[in-house]
Each structure stands twice: as structure tokens, then as C-alpha cells.
Amino acid sequence: MDAVPVRARAYVTGVALAALVVLRPLPETHTPWWAVLLLAGLYAGSELVARSRFVGTCYPVLLAGAFLLPPPAAALVALPGALLSPVAQRPYVLRRIWRAAQLTLAVWAAARVHWEYDGRDAVVAPHFPYALVPAGAAVLAFCLVLTLLDGGILLLADRVPARRAWRGLFTRSLGPIAVHGLAGLMMAVLWRSPYGPVAALLVLLPMCVAWWAFAQYHREQAAHQATIRALVQAVDIKDGYTRGHSERVGQASMMIARELGMDDERVETLRFAGILHDVGKLGVPTRLLRKDGPLTPEERRVIELHPEYGHEMVRGIRFLGEARAAVLHHHERLDGSGYPYGLAGDRIPESARVVAVADAFDAMTSTRSYSRARPVPVAVAELQRCAGAQFDPRMVGALVRALARHGWRPAVTSDGAPPESAAVPGGRAARARDSVGKGAR
What we know:
Layout: H1 6-22, H2 33-52, H3 59-68, H4 71-84, H5 92-116, H6 119-124, H7 132-156, H8 162-165, H9 169-192, H10 196-201, H11 204-238, H12 245-259, H13 264-276, H14 286-289, H15 297-303, H16 306-314, H17 323-329, H18 350-365, H19 376-386, H20 393-406, H21 427-435
Helix pairs in contact: 1-5, 1-7, 2-3, 2-4, 3-4, 3-5, 3-9, 4-5, 5-7, 7-9, 12-13, 12-18, 12-20, 13-17, 16-17, 17-18, 18-19
């Protein structure tokens, strides 16, 4: 939403107007304004703390409001926190309006469903598991509204294709929101009990512990990303011919892994593997990486040590998992003619077979100072030709399917305009440096 299209602004405006409509008070309904103010203040404070520590939104307070208050009053609980919470990107005002309108509609829908199922009576005199029925219906409504609105903004603001805009949004959010819904129900029951609102606030203590744990996890992930970014930047500075190559190999590796149905954690590991596959170039003398003219057999053998150098560099980084094996073996070939150990077939780790295909594909489709990019269909045909001998056919097939589904945008990784390779001094050496062991050339 950095550069928001007109249609997305119109969409946000429409959602905001809908939010204003649902805030109209219901006739003949008593609204406990002290409870609205207390919950709104609690939500605003928790939202400010949570957002500043990257731990998400305090949905239990919102859902407790949906379980305790009439729909318009419950919707008001979300407004102050949504409008005041920190926003990381521009346009700040539009993003705050969007967040406030989205949460207002979601809380209103949850409260309305809870009201229709006589949930207020269940909260006052809880009879489990009956009390879970209206609460569960309210949580489903809350999650469904968020999903529908989020998919719309992905479609209109981020230009995600319609077939993918809503894919997986509901299923991914339902579990966490259901947990928050249980906490909100506990708050509402205690609120209506003889113990009163003070006891209800105690429900937030375990949630605060969970947020703290999540914040610690987030900091750890940020440290991981910073470690990888520093290594990749060091490689890019040393070997300008492959600038940007690592990130694209990581992207292609992730596409293959997803197409193979791997879980999210393993997909992320293979993305790391693709990004770091050439980190061993830090151990190769710079004069060889930048040499004009052909490489001697001895110099070629030195460059072929870069997978082992890379493995030594990352072997102590535990969070990389199987990515370390990919760094070591991504130049092995299925027929056993690769390096550094000449592994063949299934003896080559699966992660390395994924990265090998991603590496070769990006090398062929990227314009370098010594060669022009090949069209994607030509590169795919070359990978298919080498499948079974150099590349794992499963990985090649997965990449082909992923490309058909998502497409690919090759990028220029050399500095300046790419001339014909025959006119570039040192073109042979550069080609050897970057494609040693890739085979698909």
C-alpha cells in the first residue's frame, strides 16, 4: 500500500463508510458506557505495547467486548487503539483508517452473531459447553470478515491475482483467533461474575506471557535475517558478477519447495539455502573472481573449493538446519560427475538438489556482463534436457509447474549495460567463475 491505487483508496473509503454505518446505536438498547471506555482504553494500551514489540493485536479484549456489549458499542472498542497504533509504512493516515474500519466491522459482526445466538445470557449464566456455541459462531464471523476484507485489499492495493488473494487467509487465521476467542470468553464470564472486571483483567496475564515469548522469537528471527543479510552482502561486494543472484536463487528454491508440498518451516530453510549457496566465495581469492582471461586448471580447482569453504562458514549456525548441506553439495550432479565429493542420485541431499536447479535456472535467465539472459522457456528446456543426468527431474518438474503458476522476472545483476559476451574482456573467466559445475550452459 505504499503507492495506493485509486481503486484501493475507493475500497478503503467504502469499508470506512460501512464501519460508520454499523456504529449507529441500536434503539431501546442500554449501553454501559463505562465498560466501553474501560475496554477501549485497555485495548488501546495493549495495542500500543503489542505493536511496538511486533507481537500482533490484542484480540481477546475486542472479542470480550463483542461478548459483553451491544454490537455498535462493541465496535467502538476497536476505534481508539486502531487509530492510535503505530504504523510502519506510508500512507499512515490511510493505513490507520483501514485498520480501524476493518476491526470495527469484524467486531460488530462478531457481536451481532453472538447477540443473535443469545450469547449474552450464556455469559451471564454460563452453561458449558452451551456458552461455547455463540462464542464460536462469533469467532467465525470475526475471522470471516477479516479474511474477506484482507483479501480485497490484497487484490486491489497489492495487485495479487484474484485466485490467490483469499487463498489460505481464513485457515491460517482461524486457529490463533480461536485461542484469542477463548480468552475473550473467559474475560466476559469473569466480568459478569461476582468477581467483576478486575478478575477479568487477570485473563490477560498468560496472554502477555505468550506475547513476550513471541517477541523473543521475533527478535531471534530478526537476528537470523541480519546474519544472512551480512553474509550475502559480503559476497556481493566481493563478486560483483553475481550481485542479486543469491536472493533470486533463494526465491526459486522457495518456489520449488512449495510446489513439492513442503511445510512452511522447511520452505524457509530452503530459501536460506538458496540465499547462502555461494557464501563460500568469501574464501576464494578476489583476484580469481575478478580475473580477466581464462582460468588455469589450478585456478579452477581453487574456485571449486567454494562449497567446502561455505560449509565451514555456516556449519556452526544451527538455525540453518539442512541448508548447510545444500551449501556443501549444490554442485553435485545426479550422475556423480559433480563436486566436491562426486555424490550421485539420492546420496545428494534433497535440499542441495533443489538449490542446484534454482541456481542453474537463475544463472541462465539473468543478464550478466559476459552473456545475455536466456528466455525462460529456453532455460526451462535446458533444465529438462539435463534432468536425470545433472538435475533431479522432480525438482525440475516442480520449478516448471511453479513458473507456470507464478511466472518469473529475471533481473540484471551486472553493473552497466550488458554487451555481447564476445566483446567483453575476460568473458571466458567470468563465465567459468560463475557457472563452474552448473552444466546447463
